[in-house]
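Hey, quick one: can you model this chain's 3D structure?
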Amino acid sequence: MSTIYLDTIIKSDIQTVFDLARDIDLHQKSTFKTGEKAIAGRTSGLIELGETVTWKAKHLGVVQTFTTKIISMKKPHHFTDVMLKGVFKSMKHQHIFRQKGKNTIMTDIFEFQSPLGIIGKIFNTIYLKNYMKKFLLERNQLIKETAENNEKSTRKNGIKRERSERQNGQY
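Sure thing. Here's the predicted structure for all 171 residues.
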C-alpha cells in the first residue's frame, strides 16, 4: 500500500474549498491532459455522500474506466471516496479541510495498492506514486486558483457595491 500526503494552503473560506474539491466539472478541467470525463453516476455538479462517479480517461497510454463512491462526508470538513472498479487493487482518498485564519488547509491522504503483486510494487515505486502525486498536485492547483480568484472577485464586487452605495447616498 502506498500513501501520498499533500497539504495545500488556500486563501479562501472552508466552504468554498470544500465545494470546489467535490465539483465534478472542475475536476474534469483539472484533468484535461488525460481527457478525463465523468460518464456515469454523478456526471456534473457537486458529488454527495453515497453517490458514485465513473470516469473514463487515458492514463499511461491506456484508456481506462474507474468508478468511485463517496463513503463518508461531514460538510465542510471532510469527505472520503473509494474505488469500486478500476485498475488499482484498492484506492481510498481522504479529503480533509481546516480553516486557519483567512486560509483553508486542504489535506489529501491518497492510499492505493497496485495490482500485479511484486511487479506492481516495483512499478509503483519507480513510477506510479510520482505520477499520482503530480496528478493530485495539478488538481489542487486548479482548486487553489479557482478559490482564490473567487475570493478576489467577491472582495472587488463588495468594494464596487460599497462605492456605488456611497455615490448614491445610501451610506
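One thing worth noting: Strands lie at 2-10, 37-41, 52-59, 62-74, 78-85, 90-100, 103-113.
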